[in-house]
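Handoff note, outgoing to incoming analyst
You'll be picking up this chain. Sequence as last confirmed:
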Amino acid sequence: MEPIVLVVDDEDMTRKLLRLMLARDGFTIIEAEDGQQALDMIAESQPDIVILDVMMPNMDGFTACQILRSRPETATLPIIMLSARSQVEAMRAGLQSGADRYMTKPISKPELVQTITDLLSGVPVVENP
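Most recent structure output, in case you need it:
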């Protein structure tokens, strides 16, 4: 069975790019446009991993990540934060909110696929900015 990846981003083009990138590598992609929609999708679809944008309307990625970490059923769900914000403070905030990895746009396909594969197999990939 293909791993299910939830891609959460308010930009349609970003979701489309990630969908095309990852579907070719054997991942099933589901999508959400903001943090609240992501929480609803996770309860409904139970993805194996989440790629979460930081800056989104309604609920940002930091808040969504904190909520996911506070719930027993999603406390260990692998989460990758993906953002255009590359400042050390943003990276630190992402990791402190509970993300397993903070990656910046534009994203390298090989790096993203390797990170997803590592997280799904239990390899620790937390960075300390």
